[in-house]
Amino acid sequence: MIDIMSMMNKVKEAQAKIKETQAELVHLRAEGEVGAGMVKVIVNGDRKVLDIEIDPSLFNDKDKDMMKDLIVGATNKALENIDVKIKEKMSAATAGMMPNIPGMDFGNMV
């Protein structure tokens, strides 16, 4: 038989831990790089772009469209990378706090 009070306390603990972990996500950093390092984008755990590095060789009119594509690609790659880090951090924060309930993935609660 499941102890409902114990389970409710664990849910409250998990909620508090998730909130605390979400506040820490801003400190996570991830980089996306494309074009053999010609464009790099750095994002944080709030999914905000922090920095863009562009190889100076791309600064000419004829490569403008390619540069746009590289920036978009690097940004998307950085966002994919930060999503992985966020999921890992959230999973670690809630590990062992809740019973394994099919369909309940607390690691995705961002």
From TrEMBL:
Coiled coil feature spans: 4-31
GO terms of molecular function: DNA binding
UniProt keyword terms in alphabetical order: Coiled coil, Cytoplasm, DNA-binding
Transmembrane parts of this sequence: none
Subcellular location field: Cytoplasm, Nucleoid
GO terms under cellular component: bacterial nucleoid; cytosol
InterPro entries according to UniProt: YbaB-like_sf (IPR036894), YbaB/EbfC (IPR004401)
A Pfam family hit: YbaB_DNA_bd
Keyword Coiled coil set for record: yes
Keyword Metal-binding in annotation: no
NCBIfam families recorded: DNA_YbaB_EbfC
Membership in a protein family: Belongs to the YbaB/EbfC family.
Function: Binds to DNA and alters its conformation. May be involved in regulation of gene expression, nucleoid organization and DNA protection.
Quaternary context: Homodimer.
Name of this protein: Nucleoid-associated protein SAMN04488057_11152
